[in-house]
Amino acid sequence: MPEDDWQRAVLNDVTARSAAAAMDPGPADPVPAIAAPAVVPLPPAAADVAPPSPEPPAPAPVLTPEAAALLTGKPRRGESAARRVGRSLRRLVASSAARETAEVTGVARQLQQPITTGRQIVVTSVHGGAGKTAITTLLGSAYAHYRSDPVLVMEANPTLGTLPVRLDAPSLRWTMSDVARVVAPSMRFDQVIGYLVALPEGGWLLPGSKGQIGARVSLDEYQTVAMALRRYFAITMVDCESLPGELARSAMAGAQARVLVAPATVEGVASARTVLEWMGSVPRPMLPGTVVALNATSPHTAIDLPAAERYLRVGDVRVVHVPYDRHLAAGGAVRLALLGQRTRDAAARLGAELLDRAVRR
């Protein structure tokens, strides 16, 4: 089989199997209909094995009604009206518009480049509060927006992670621990996504928990799920725990590309430099394929950004600055249409850089 037909070996014609899928006693959540190419049938020995069909867990809300009621008013736009007007005026200048169009086209081409095998990209941070989950959300949404093949976002984070909230998941049912117990090589693509959450901005989510204290993803569960699901998705984004946790170290070592999120502060940059030096000294160096996301969590940055970027270029590590965004900083669900243009551009550049590195490995 040609290498570039990899998805034909794993995707199924959902339309042709919709009647059979309706009789499947597996997950109760409706399976989104997606266009998928015809597949080469599995060998009889594998095709005849029925997938596991455990009792589906009860759905749980992402936020309790009391917590959801705390949200008031409309979400803010990422940029002020004055900044939006200024950008529109600059586009009236022919040279500026042509340059911007060329840059956007080049980045889009990188994001849409063909992938022959599933690529995993792990996002971690120097410490909590750096914006790791926000960056994961931006990247997962960008890949789902630009690509037509399947994109998965997984949460391999301690209990009470916020990824489902940021991705605006409608509800939660199956967790990574649940899927680790039932995933099987014989599953078809339409069966796999029955255990996942279809996201409003595109792509699928596998949460780490449903907000219970004590329900934490183990290293064995993560490795089982990551290996099993990789073949179904072109890109798998992993929102991982902060370093130096054991799961984070294992996930980063096995990924094709890595994002180290650091706040755009003096202490954040200093910590990131220390982590990068450690990543280059371990027996299996992690610097190849690593990109630093220098995340501005405040509208007023007190550091010299160009100097910070030069300081963080350890080995061939690339640094991408993600600017402060009012919509992103406000918390809650991230809407791509409400993000500032500079934030969308930075997320696209970060995604393109990561994908280039992931494909080369």
Strand content: 5-15%
**Average of pLDDT:** 81
Beginning-to-end CA distance, first to last residue: 21 Å
Report the principal-axis shape.
globular
Assigned CATH architecture of the domain at 112-360: 3-Layer(aba) Sandwich
Can you tell me about this structure?
This protein is α/β, with parallel strands linked by helices and 361 residues long. The chain has a domain at 112-360: P-loop containing nucleotide triphosphate hydrolases (Rossmann fold, 3-Layer(aba) Sandwich), CATH 3.40.50. It is built from 15 helices and 8 strands. The protein has helices at 14-23, 44-47, 65-68, 81-90, 94-111, 132-146, 163-166, 176-182, 189-192, 219-229, 246-254, 266-281, 305-311, 326-329, 341-360; strands at residues 119-125, 151-156, 197-198, 204-206, 235-240, 257-263, 290-295, 318-322. Strands 3-4-2-5-1-6-7-8 form an 8-stranded mixed β-sheet, with helices on both faces. Mean pLDDT is 81; it is low at 1-50. InterPro entries: P-loop_NTPase, ParA/MinD_ATPase.
Write a short abstract of this structure.
The chain has 15 helices and 8 strands. With 361 residues, it is of the alpha/beta class.
Topology, element by element:
Blueprint: H1 14-23, H2 44-47, H3 65-68, H4 81-90, H5 94-111, E1 119-125, H6 132-146, E2 151-156, H7 163-166, H8 176-182, H9 189-192, E3 197-198, E4 204-206, H10 219-229, E5 235-240, H11 246-254, E6 257-263, H12 266-281, E7 290-295, H13 305-311, E8 318-322, H14 326-329, H15 341-360
Parallel strand pairs: 1-5, 1-6, 2-4, 2-5, 6-7, 7-8
Antiparallel strand pairs: 3-4
Helix pairs in contact: 5-15, 6-15, 8-10
